[in-house]
Amino acid sequence: MNFPSTINSKLPTVGTTIFTTMSALAKEHNAINLSQGFPDFNPHPVLVAEIEKAMRSNFNQYAPMAGYLPLRQKLAEKIEKLYSCAVDPETEITITAGGTQAIFTAIVSVIRENDEVILFAPAYDSYAPAIELAGGKALFCDLEAPEYKINWQNVKKLVSQRTKMIIINTPHNPTGTVMNAFDMAQLDKITRGTDIVIISDEVYEHIIFDGIEHQSVLRFPKLAERSFVINSFGKTYHTTGWKVGYCIAPKNLTTEFRKVHQFNVFSVNSIAQVAFNEILKLPDLYLELSAFYQQKRDYFQRAIQSSRFKLFNCEGTYFQLASYHKISDERDLEFVKRMTRDMGVAAIPISVFYRNNTDNSVIRFCFAKEEETLKRAAELICKI
Ligand SMILES: Cc1ncc(COP(=O)(O)O)c(C=O)c1O
Q1: Whose CA is nearest to atom 14 of ligand 1?
Q2: Ligand 1 centroid distance, CA of 203 (Å)
Q3: What distance in angstroms lies between residue 2's CA and the mean position of ligand 1's atoms?
Q4: 3-state secondary structure 310-373
Q5: Does domain 45-282 have CATH number 3.40.50.300?
Q6: Where are the domains of the chain?
């Protein structure tokens, strides 16, 4: 007999993520994998050389709990330059094992039993389970296809005495939309005079198109003073597998964040931190990232323009949404599985990002791929 004979799951509705499912299916059927969000190209050779150098220079033991200080200092300089925001590297920046860990830690450090957290759906899949594990309750404000813009009147209706947190994500995964100055003003209006804490997930800050300026909460002092800002080196430097990110927050929030961080991670791999500190000395690499991905977006959009898919606006991230309503009336999950099996291209169904699985016949392609990969995928997509 197994012991314990029954486990009362803390996350009874959570199964294997769609990303694992679709990547496995793509592999099984030898399909081109445009499902999971990762590049199929290598990081910059300087970054690879620097991580090797760090290893040979004996940066192989525990890094400081809050992160390698020169890296935090370099990040503070970058934030000052980009967003005119002074951040103390000693007390307001913590290096984390990726953006997902930073989100989890931020949520657990402030959310208690019965606290309410407002999320925008479709939402990145880690937010709601982290809230539930902390005993909180996720309230969803749906973004409606095809614009996926925030309806601030609806947000207002969800705010109450129990609201402890609002989580925003810009540029937004999976929709590719971007919050503008009006959105930030509305967020300020709603939170001003309250104790609401914000998580601002900005992991795609350098992947934003057509000259649009990224509206980091760090640009807005009244928002910055109540925010955990989440970032990921994985997205900016094509190193999703290295799992290094960071959290910027005012001292009082960072103090609570680090109390949790030190007992579930303690410190993050040292050699990657040393290498990221070196690569940050080359600002063109992040300043030119938007142009790099815009070229990929434009190439992919042109290549599938003649297909039967209807393409949605993509203002940022490396994801392209497309509607297949002219092709099939299957549910989106069934459609992507059949597309992977029979047509050789894997994508992600958007319904999985909604709590109630809202299905608008929309799927997500990841275009962080070599041009050759995109070309082969587009040829198959145009035959569907
Ligand atoms: C919106 C969003 N937030 C956070 C993350 C997590 O970043 P990391 O891979 O550094 O954990 C991702 C990764 O896909 C993401 O899309």
Answers
A1: 37
A2: 6
A3: 36
A4: EECCCCECCEEEEECCCCCCCCHHHHHHHHHHHHCEECEEHHHHCCCCCCCCEEEEECCCCHHH
A5: no
A6: 18-37+287-382, 45-282
Q: Compute, in angstroms, the gap from residue 348 CA to the centroid of ligand 1.
A: 15
Beta pairing, strands 197-201 & 227-232: parallel
Phi, psi of 376, rounded to the nearest 5 degrees: -65, -40
User: Per-residue confidence of the chain (384 residues) as pLDDT tens digits?
Assistant: 566 678 899 998 888 889 999 999 999 999 999 998 999 999 999 999 999 999 999 999 999 999 999 999 999 999 999 999 999 999 999 999 999 999 999 999 999 999 999 999 999 999 999 999 999 999 999 999 999 999 999 999 999 999 999 999 999 999 999 999 999 999 999 999 999 999 999 999 999 999 999 999 999 999 999 999 999 999 999 999 999 999 999 999 999 999 999 999 999 999 999 999 999 999 999 999 999 999 999 999 999 999 999 999 999 999 999 999 999 999 999 999 999 999 999 999 999 999 888 999 999 999 999 999 999 999 999 998
What are the start-end ranges of the E strands in 221-276? Answer: 227-232, 245-248
* pTM exceeds 0.90, yes or no: yes
Question: What is the DSSP pairing of strand 137-142 with strand 116-121?
Answer: parallel
Pocket of ligand 1 (CB under 6 A): 37, 98-100, 124, 169, 173, 201, 203, 232, 234, 240, 245
CATH topology of domain 18-37+287-382: Aspartate Aminotransferase, domain 1 (3.90.1150)
